[in-house]
Amino acid sequence: MEDEVLRKLLTEVAEIFYGEKLKSLQFLLSDLLKPSTYTNALHIFEDLLLQRHITHDNLYLLYDIIKITGYFVLQDTLNKSVQNFPDLTRWQPTSKISTYRIMLFKVANKLYTDDVARIKFMYTVRQDISDVWGLIMFLEKECKIENNSDKLLKLKESVNPKAGKEIEVYCSNHFTTSVDFTDGRGDVQCVTHQDHVTQELTSPELMDLARDLGAEWEQLAIILGLKKADLDHLKEDNRGSVVQAIFSMLDAWYKKTPGDDRLRRAKLVQALKDTDRTDLAEKVESKVM
After folding, report:
1. Mean pLDDT, consecutive 10-residue segments, the chain of 289 residues?
2. Please, what's the largest Cα pairwise distance for the chain?
3. What whole-number distance in Å separates Cα of residue 76 and Cα of residue 171?
4. pLDDT at residue 1 in the model
């Protein structure tokens, strides 16, 4: 994808983000953006381009935005410009946007006017902030909302049950309590654990694998059960991009392979070993819990 095509694509995507949607986009990407008040989404995308969070050959962050916001109507826009555009309904967001930020985004989307008033009262916010996105960002700036269980559970007490459930699930997945005996006092401390590894073969993982594979990719495809005619179609549909052809092969294999992702991963690991790419087999296998 050339730079001109990418900028035209981002111009079309930006059209959906205005008003509250613009504020929500800035909130979602606040860890990646410089502190600023953006008047339109094009300014946000310009900064993302300058920082190379989005490039002509890496649109993962754009996919993340669509998946997290749920604006799947943008799939049609991307389909016109991106060859072999992935199915974003099963796209797993990359690590560019933290799980903490995604959780807060989901919480904010579930807040009502009464929640905003309650939060302002509980946190003694006297500033004239009426929108939820600005309020959460203000509380983060003041360090009243942070990525630790105590402060998140305090926020949970100030919001409606649906929003509170998002916080509860996040805390249960990312924090646990343990007794610290090292100081002799038995203080209870919160310990962060964010090393959960998923069994799911995500689109970004398959793309990374596609980049690592070389000429042996056709042999791998045959071992995985694809036919030579399938390979011919893949190469024809992706002329000029071997990596995209390999990703399309892996994606096609994933979609037609029955069973759960644990079995799919095991089959892929064995196929890589049979192709004498034990290095990649170990890389794929290391993601298993």
Report:
1. 86 94 95 85 95 87 92 85 76 84 96 94 92 94 91 95 94 64 38 45 84 90 89 85 89 81 85 89 72
2. 69
3. 36
4. 60
* CA-based torsion, 220, 222, 228, 234: positive or negative: negative
pTM of the model: 0.63
Q: At what angle do helices 20-28 and 41-50 cross, to 10 degrees?
A: 20
Give pLDDT, residue 181. 33
Measured between alpha carbons, how far is 161 from 48 in angstroms, rounded to an integer? Answer: 35
Q: What is the pLDDT of residues 48-84, one digit of tens each?
A: 999 888 988 888 899 999 999 999 888 888 888 877 6
- What number of other Cβ atoms are within 10 A of residue 204's Cβ? 19
Backbone φ and ψ for 56, nearest 5 degrees, come out as -65, -25
